[in-house]
Amino acid sequence: MTPYPVSQARPGWVIQRISSPHSAIVVANLPNGLDVIDSNYIGVDGSFVISRHPLTWSQLAGFTAYRATFMEQF
Predict the structure, then answer these.
(1) What phi, psi does 13 have (nearest 5°)?
(2) Could you give phi then psi for residue 8, rounded to 5 degrees?
(3) What is the pTM for the complete model shown?
(4) pLDDT over 90 for what percent of the chain?
(5) Interstrand relation of 63-67 and 14-17 (parallel, antiparallel or unpaired)
(6) How far is CA 52 from CA 2, 32, 42, 71, in A?
(7) Cβ distance 6 to 23 under 8 Å?
């Protein structure tokens, strides 16, 4: 997969932070961050859940965006 700056992420791309492992799928690139789906979002009861939620650009520090190169054929 080809790495890109997280600010260039588009729907369907994967973002990943290596230093404190975390990955998410991008739903939308917003003016103030990214709308993502991830599997270890902390829910209201303190448990980890799959959730769709926004992350601000400051929360995305240390993330890299990836677009699978095979997607270019579609």
Answers:
(1) -75, 160
(2) -95, 0
(3) 0.82
(4) 59
(5) antiparallel
(6) 24, 16, 11, 23
(7) no
A 10 A CB-CB count for 33 gives: 17
* Structural tokens at position 4: 């890109």
Residue-wise pLDDT for 24-33, tens only, equals 999 999 999 9
Token pair 């699978």 is found at: 68
- Please compute, for residue 48, the number of CA atoms within 13 A of its CA located in the half-sphere on the CB side: 4
Per-residue confidence (pLDDT) for residue 44, from 0 to 100: 72
The tokens describing 21, both together, are 């492992």
At 2 the pLDDT is 84
Q: What angle is formed at CA 1 by the lines to CA 14 and CA 52, rounded to 5 degrees? A: 5
Q: How many residues belong to the chain?
A: 74
Q: Rounded to 5 degrees, what are φ and ψ at 6?
A: -60, -30
How many Å apart are CA 28 and CA 21, to the nearest integer? 21
